[in-house]
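Incident log, structure service

09:12 report received: a user says their structure output differs between two submissions of the same chain.
09:20 pulled the input from the user's history:
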Amino acid sequence: MPISRAKKAELIESYQERIENSQAMVVAQLSGLTVSRMEQLRGNLRANDASFVIAKKTLMSLALNRSDKPVPEDVMVGPVGFAFLGEDLSAGAKALKDFAKEVSKDQKATFNVLGGILGDSILDAKSATALADLPSRDVQLAMLIGAIAGPMTALANLVSAPQRDLVGLLQARIDKEGGEETAEAA
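09:34 re-ran on a clean worker, output below:
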């Protein structure tokens, strides 16, 4: 059944909003998946600040063009779906990777990551799957804080070093002169 122009415009606008609110988009080939399996995938992605839609490739291409994003035409072949990854790229990508691994055990269904878009770059299947291996957002923030705090700690140590050295020299002089014995005798 054909889709009306109004419905197409509404879908394109919806896809465009998803594209603009996501950090990355992953294109996946799928076939033979049951409704319950698709709901499982969507639930796993929703829990990781991501979403999944099955859309007409022409409508998604129009939405990508309107969002000034590249269109990965070479991976948009056959039955495909689109995952939109939120702030924590690795969590959503890991949910996709785990789902693909789980589906690979099923003889009747397929789910393969074909590629995607990160920023203004088109990703191949290997790069899109590698997003799952990135550190989580929390780990990345901890690494950033460590990178910022490291030089400040070094600076604090550098500033306090002369006082520490002076105290060490005075203590060594007191020990050499027998200062503790003199102090006890007095």
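09:41 both user submissions now match this output. Likely a transient worker issue. Closing.
09:42 reviewer note: The chain has two domains: 5-134, 140-185. The first strand starts at residue 24 and ends at 31.
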